[in-house]
Design goal:
The chain has an eight-stranded mixed sheet, with helices on both faces. The protein is about 35% helix and about 30% strand. The chain has about 180 residues and is of the alpha+beta class.
Length: about 180
């Protein structure tokens, strides 16, 4: 499926760990991707990481395309099985999400917000998705503002092994209200 926004048409395809490894390596090791905690990863490390995701029935990774060109990364996961096991009480219909915009020398105003909007549209295309769950690092102020802009509300601060995070939720209704007000 695709989402057409003012900054282009956004589509998704499954990430291929071997074909996309070098591309994604450049994204996740870029200084702006510090919160992905992959700064020192080699291409082989990135390929291994995404091969593990591809092999996990509860975790998926996608390359996001803008007008057919790779522009961002999206991960979707079942938070009751991956990432947040034991850290909150998962509900049926909860879907976990991570996203990363590719670094660029020519930033486009509003692009990251368009990406998170397209990601949320994609996740809510599945009628089984009731609520999107995220757990960004408490220090990542930029993503907190983006999350709020599309309807997320912080529920609590949680301690994960690799970081302190704000567990946040966004229902379909919250998302629609937030983006409807922005459009």
């Amino acid at each position: 499926m695709s989402t057409t926004l003012s900054l282009g048409t956004f589509t998704f395809r499954p990430l291929d760990p071997l074909t996309d490894g070098e591309l994604v390596h450049g994204w996740v090791t870029h200084p702006k991707a510090a919160f992905w905690m992959m700064q020192n990863h080699t291409v082989a490390d990135v390929e291994r990481e995404y091969m593990a995701i591809a092999a996990n029935e509860h975790h998926d990774a996608f390359i996001g395309l803008r007008d057919g060109e790779p522009a961002f990364l999206m991960e979707r996961y079942d938070p009751s099985k991956v990432e947040l096991v034991g850290l909150y009480e998962a509900r049926p219909g909860d879907v976990g999400m991570h996203f990363l915009v590719a670094p660029t020398d020519t930033p486009v105003h509003g692009f990251t917000r368009a990406v998170i909007t397209a990601v949320m549209e994609e996740l809510f295309r599945d009628p089984a998705t009731e609520r999107v769950v995220v757990e960004p690092d408490v220090r990542n102020k930029a993503v907190h503002a983006l999350n709020e802009a599309v309807g997320f509300e912080i529920a609590e601060k949680i301690a994960k092994p690799e970081k302190d995070a704000y567990l946040s939720f966004c229902t379909r209704e919250q998302f629609r209200a937030a983006v409807g007000a922005a459009r």
